[in-house]
UniProtKB/TrEMBL annotation:
Function: Plays a role in angiogenesis and cell migration. In smooth muscle cell migration, may act through the RhoA pathway.
Protein name (record): Angio-associated migratory cell protein
Organism per entry: Chelonia mydas (Green sea-turtle)
Location(s) in or outside the cell: Cytoplasm
WD repeats: 90-132, 133-174, 228-255, 354-395, 396-434
Length: 434
């Protein structure tokens, strides 16, 4: 899995999650008596909003769900099985839980953020809340710990970012950037980066707040990742372009556009362990492998959809939702909205395995020291796949709605998931080879 589960991974990438969050904005607009279009287009609206009161029936339903025990929770949504393999359930959110991250030093704490405008830091061992990250007035879509677990950052859709000191549980810094697309901590320093809907990427020293901006095209900076050397970042944009930035100089080292870029908005970007290769994914269903030193496209991974083709005149609904590199073999994984997990051999630039899910993949992660891929999907299940053989190792269920994000601890013994069922769950992973 490399650095993926241990940096501030924000699930803002992915066509499916953008739809989910757009629907969240529309619901908020309806509660405010505004048209969805005005809610999406007015830059200052989020700052003018006051706390939103949910109707009493919705509040009562959410409270009842939060206090249900696992034995009592026999109701399921959308026909999902009432099976719960989890060890711990965190139920203090009252709406969809969008993001989760684990503290990288001990892997004993989680931070989750949700559509209820709330973020919580809590213990994995028993689900006990340590503190709430208060003050957000929009859906919290970004949350994660600094590299040393000293700080935790939370960001909401309106662009309000807050940083908290974990041991004192106190807020130490906040900033409002406008509509937030992604956020990530620097892998070696108390430096926070974020991308916004106006195309800018931001970088702050924490807690001083010293700031630098990286101006992109006049369209959303949809996804970003700090490269392992800590000196560069790769950012993808809605217009299909990709930029590799020099963080110290504030200048773009490489710009990929036209045929080198994508023919649709970027959904996700990642790098291999040493940062020599970058991989980009888009709604155009292509994943591109890029040499980060030269900015040249090494190869393009294309996957024919396993699902039936849409009728003539209708748009193709498939897209790349998540991707990642294996640390122990020259393999890359790409997850698609049609449920395809494709394992590519980087050495031969060819498809090695194709693992089919019954529903769309939302996120994937590699295990740090094995050729094992973890996936979460719209059917509410977490699956472990052997990338060498393409065979399913194990499957874990417990959610009654789609999984929206997940994280894996360092030794790959625990998986933490968040879901549209308003819950976060902790699963203990049993592997026959361990």
């Amino acid at each position: 899995m490399g650095s993926l589960p241990f940096s501030c991974r924000v699930p803002t990438g992915g066509a499916f999650l953008h739809v989910i969050k757009s629907e969240s904005t529309q619901r908020r607009a309806e509660r405010q008596g505004l048209s969805p279009r005005s809610a999406l287009n007015q830059d200052d609206l989020a700052n003018e909003m006051e706390d939103v009161d949910f109707d009493e029936e919705a509040i009562q339903g959410a409270e009842e769900q939060a206090w249900e025990t696992e034995e009592e929770d026999e109701g399921v949504e959308d026909g999902m099985e009432a099976q719960d393999d989890s060890e711990v359930t965190f139920s203090e959110h009252s709406a969809s839980v969008f993001c989760v991250s684990l503290d990288p030093t001990t892997n004993t704490l989680a931070v989750t953020g949700g559509e209820d405008d709330k973020a919580f830091v809590w213990r994995l061992s028993d689900g006990e809340r340590l503190f709430e990250c208060t003050g957000h007035k929009d859906s919290v879509t970004c949350a994660g710990f600094s590299h040393d677990s000293m700080f935790v950052a939370t960001g909401d859709m309106s662009g309000l970012i807050k940083v908290w000191q974990v041991d004192t549980k106190k807020e130490i810094w906040s900033f409002d950037v406008g509509d937030l697309e992604w956020m990530e901590w620097h892998p070696q320093a108390h430096v926070l980066l974020a991308g916004t809907a106006d195309g800018n990427s931001w970088m702050w020293k924490i807690p001083s707040g010293e700031c630098k901006t990286f101006q992109g095209p006049s369209c959303p900076a949809t996804c970003g990742r700090v490269l392992p050397d800590g000196k560069r970042a790769v950012v993808g944009y809605e217009d299909g372009t990709v930029r590799i930035w020099d963080l110290k100089q504030g200048s773009s080292l490489h710009v990929l556009k036209g045929q080198d870029g994508h023919q649709g908005p970027l959904t996700c970007v990642t790098s291999n362990k040493d940062g020599s290769l970058v991989m980009t994914g888009s709604v155009d269903c292509h994943a591109k492998l890029v040499n980060s030193a030269t900015g040249k496209v090494v190869c393009v991974f294309k996957m024919e959809s396993a699902a039936s083709k849409p009728p003539a005149g209708e748009a193709e609904s498939n897209s790349v939702e998540s991707l990642g590199f294996c640390n122990v073999m020259p393999l890359a994984a790409v997850g698609y909205l049609d449920g395809t997990l494709a394992i590519y051999d980087i050495s031969t630039q060819s498809l090695r395995q194709r693992c089919q899910h019954e529903s769309g993949i939302v996120q994937l992660l590699w295990e740090d020291s094995a050729a094992v891929v973890y996936t979460c999907s719209l059917d509410g299940a977490v699956r472990l796949w052997d990338a060498r053989s393409g065979k399913l190792i194990s499957e874990y269920r417990g959610h009654s709605a789609e999984i929206l994000d997940f994280a894996v601890n360092k030794d790959a013994s625990i998986v933490v998931t968040t879901s549209g069922d308003h819950q976060a769950k902790v699963f203990c992973v049993q592997r026959p080879d361990r």
